[in-house]
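Box 3.1 A note on notation
Throughout this textbook, protein chains are presented in two layers. The first layer is the amino acid sequence; the second is a token string describing backbone geometry. Keep the layers aligned when reading.
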Amino acid sequence: MAQAKNHSRRHFMEGLAAGVGALAVAGQGKAGDMLEPSKNKAVYQLNKSDAAYILDILHSAATVLQHFNNDADIVIDCFGPGIWLLVKTEKNHHHYEKFIMEQVQSLSMYGVVFNACEQTMKTVKIDKASLIPEAKPVFSGAVDLIILQQKGYAYISW
């Protein structure tokens, strides 16, 4: 299990490093260029608190960014037990590894949006102040999935 976990981490980091390199090349446009919405759009459903499941989704998002040279709008909708990914450590009984939280921070720096379902937050009694800075509250994860698909986002369920 530890070997598989290390392989997954190494694979994720290699993909992320390659993506960062591609971003550096892609970001060499003229200063002042306006960013346009990407034609490559994906929304991930993250509704479990299992660390391996979360790493798979984060790795997939990094792979999509790499493949499209960061020309991808990616949203990760966290609801149900998946909400815990977006809860600060002191309020979070799942205590995810530092590595997972570093991946969230890194992906966020490359424009990946992490949506937190307010309906789940109410159910498990989490307020907005308990969320990590990368989290963006939305009314409902399920409603958000519908709206984003209507806007052309590819729905990715794990």
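Confidence is low (pLDDT under 50) at residues 17-33. Residues 51 and 96 are 7 Å apart (CA to CA).
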